[in-house]
Write a structure and sequence with these properties.
The protein is of the alpha/beta class. Helix content is 41%, strand content 20%.
Length: 369
């Protein structure tokens, strides 16, 4: 069961607090390219992205955020924006003026020899004053030299790094925090997040929300599989309030993958769901052909699930979670199910798709394309 975490307000969105898991992405543009950044944020929002993050390498980049935000809002896009900060506390302070959330990396926010509290406490107080959210974003590959010396480049080191910065937030009575503990390998990412959740519980801390992602997951099938393994494992655990599928592709491509992952985890339903068996010697029709026909005909029904099962053996039981089922019942015959109940039996296969559409319409669940 999903853990209920602290509600963190980020502009017009909420992360945690029982809100739906939020999908985010990140631009690939420099903030100095104002028009390019605005264009990409608008494209992301149109694709369904619910929070867009912008890299901010320098103070000069942070100063460009004022113009970017103004133009994004003028374009009618209201999703919250986040600044991604490394090495540059001055840029982080500037970013707080313009965007709803600022990500800092504990591994490089404070320079060697500096006191963490001296650098981070004023930033936390400013975020609190302005009503901004802060992501404490630890990366497996960028822990501080001090943490590395004590804990190594390990999930434990990632957690200890995050907890140091949490202590300062709690001392300032600031709870608008999102944690992320990311790695390029799903195993380390999953271990770090599970350990962090455990340490929060054991330490009597508030249940802060988590942002999940396998950083540098790659492109194509590799990036999608790694992300599904890492993010999916934690979502099934009940950990995770916002996700990003990091792909070496146009960031717009990340959005449908993220929503599909959430639907597979049973957390959000944004498209039609199709269940189909792999087929075997008992299959009574051309399963691959019929499954494609069913998808083509009914994929616009976003809040429905339809099962296509080759025979009666596994059909009713395996498709118990589907709204409707198309099941082989004999040579050239199909039985249509509503849930696990057969409602139209032994229909000729050539009539089955039309009869399924009629059934869906009779139940008031049909919408036109």
């Amino acid at each position: 069961m999903r853990e209920k975490s602290v509600a963190v307000r980020i502009g017009n969105a909420v992360v945690g607090g029982g809100a739906p898991v939020l999908v985010q992405s990140m631009t690939t543009t420099s903030p100095k390219d104002v028009e390019g950044s605005v264009k990409q944020i608008v494209e992301l929002a149109q694709a369904g992205c619910e929070l867009a993050r912008i890299t901010v390498p320098t103070l000069a980049d942070a100063e460009k955020l004022k113009e970017i935000v103004a133009k994004v809002r003028a374009a009618g896009v209201e999703i919250p924006l986040s600044a991604d900060i490394h090495f540059q506390p001055k840029a982080a302070f500037e970013a707080l003026k313009w965007v709803e959330k600022v990500r800092i990396n504990p591994g490089n926010f404070v320079s060697a020899g500096q006191n963490i509290e001296d650098v981070f406490s004023p930033f936390v107080r400013e975020a609190k004053k302005l009503g901004r959210a802060v992501r404490i974003g630890v990366n497996h590959g960028s822990l501080s030299a001090r943490i590395l010396a004590k804990f190594g480049n390990t999930p434990l080191g990632m957690v200890e790094s995050a907890l140091e910065f949490l202590a300062i937030c709690e001392a300032e009575n600031f709870d608008q925090i999102v944690f992320s503990l990311k790695a390029s390998r799903p195993l380390e990412m999953v271990q770090a997040n599970r350990l962090m959740a455990e340490r929060l519980r054991e330490g009597g801390h508030k249940p802060y929300p988590f942002h999940l992602g396998v950083t540098e997951a790659g492109e194509g099938e590799d990036g999608r599989i790694k992300s599904a393994v890492g993010i999916g494992a934690l979502l099934i655990d009940g950990i995770g309030d916002t996700i990003r599928v990091s792909l070496t592709e146009n960031p717009v491509n990340e959005i449908p993958v993220a929503f599909a992952l959430l639907q597979a985890a049973g957390l959000r339903k944004t498209k039609a769901e199709f269940i189909s068996c792999p087929g075997c010697g008992r299959t009574l029709f051309e399963l691959q052909i019929v499954t494609r026909e069913v998808k083509n005909r009914f994929s616009h029904l976003k809040n429905l699930s339809i099962a296509v099962m080759g025979c009666i053996v596994n059909g009713p039981g395996e498709m118990a979670g589907a709204d409707f089922g198309y099941v082989g019942a004999g040579n050239g015959k199909i039985t249509l199910y509503e849930g696990t109940e057969p409602v139209k039996k032994y229909i000729p296969q050539e009539e089955a798709l039309d009869e399924l559409e009629k059934l869906i319409k009779e139940r008031g669940k049909w919408i036109e394309k």
